[in-house]
Amino acid sequence: MELFSKTISTLENAINYSNTKQKVISQNIANVDTPNYKAKDVSFKDTLTKTMEANLTNEKHIPFTTSTSGGTKILTKTGVTYNNNGNSVDMDQEMTDLASNQIYYNALIDRISGKFNTLETVIKGGK
Hints:
Layout: H1 2-30, E1 40-43, H2 45-53, E2 73-76, H3 91-123
Antiparallel strand pairs: 1-2
């Protein structure tokens, strides 16, 4: 049962990441015409890299934790300007990110729904 709860926790962290990314993308789109607005992005790779580089018993092991911190960071994209008013929101990129994040979120929801359906089946005794 511990593996089941770790899976749920991992999926929860992934859903939290997707939710944060959705909010950041929405904020970027809402500020597409705001002068000097700098687009933001969500980073999860830094946390994953640190986890992978941690001292592990075997280099192929990935530790699973039940924390819900998620490890996402919101970063401001610097050094780029797409509009004459200093705004760095690329609407085409934001729409692409929005679609990609929606597909990712739907896949996570399908997976967590499947886990709960499996649990329901076990509780009902396989009926």
